[in-house]
Fold this sequence. Notes:
Number of helices: 12
Strand content: 25-35%
Distance between the termini: 6 Å
Number of strands: 26
Oligomer: single chain
Amino acid sequence: MIAKIFPSTIFGSVYAPASKSSMQRACAAALVRKGESIIRNPGKSNDDNAALDVIQTLGAEIYDLNDGSLKIISDGVDPVSSSVNNGEAGLGIRMFTPIVALSRKEITINGKGSLLTRPMNFFDEVLPQLGVDILSNNGMLPLKIKGPLQPKNIEIDGSLSSQFLTGLLLVYAALDAKNVTIKVNNLKSKPYVDLTLSVMESFMLKVPQNNNYESFYFDETPVINHDDFIDYMVEGDWSGGAFLLVAGAVAGNIKVEGLDITSTQADKKIIEALKDCGADISIEKNQIKIISSNQLNAFEFDASDCPDLFPPLAALAANCKGITKIIGVHRLKHKESNRALTIQKELGKMHIKVDLNDNVMSIEGNQNIKSANVHSNHDHRIAMMCAVVALKANEETTIEVAEAINKSYPDFYNHLQQLGVSLSLQ
């Protein structure tokens, strides 16, 4: 699909999409806790659909309710097939692999697209220590897993991602682990661990003691009665909402509803960047108002714990006077694209200078953004970044493979049109 975005001023209100970080964790929690769970405001993205497919393959029953909610009934992990597919979901593959290992059956775990090139060698290193047989494709997909996993004291590397830790925490809780510690070195994305622990608590799973994110201890407290009914509301998505807020800061007068300012989602930090650059923003209960400013100024931001913010931050920086510096480039290599290089290449086409110096990205703002033919590189966040930057270009911008947004925010272009953006999809 090709999207043509015309320079536009935006106005009105829009409701943020459902958080796929919250949705996927809720699916996993509903599977391992046993019993009946209702998930309200479920996500519709490709990653969300992949998570639902995985838990169904692992034994959960899923029912659509009249109000759009989902009912999930589970008796724990009991696979109905010898293979599961996580689509392109990076969180899904890292979180669900330890959960698959709860089964005594040999299961093949696969994915597609960029997921096939992402390193998975941490599974080879860690899972055998927990009694799991594993065979990988030289540290990549597909994986063959055979459990059952046995919770033990273990030490893992958290420098690449916190998502594998999320899976282990859910599995240890499902097994009612007692007097066991998961030690973590160099943990990144701590706010996402907070989200995991929050979801576990909401689903009445056993929550470990968090010792300054360096270790997680499961004590002797007995497991909660699983007969209790769970009713869970999926949060609005700060990752997708960040693009809407940046669009408002550079080109409009809008209200974004459905974002909880008390959320544990890491990408809530977009508010800090917007304030630092001088955006006209006001935060009210369940809605954020933001108005474009005559002059936004360059800012410095550490995105090491929220790497998914790089694309909306880059779109914001492109409209700021001066040179913005964003720290955390090392976290971008194994995304849907090599995201640092992709940001540099695609913004460069629009006459926005992006320099990469080790772990720092420097972006020189340009008040004369040029229209261009850009490419998503099959990366949902790059497609959205280009669309937001295009709002201030001199003429129409063409985005190739624009359907990449379906991975996380399938309603993105519809929401832009709802706010008055002139665009066409072909």
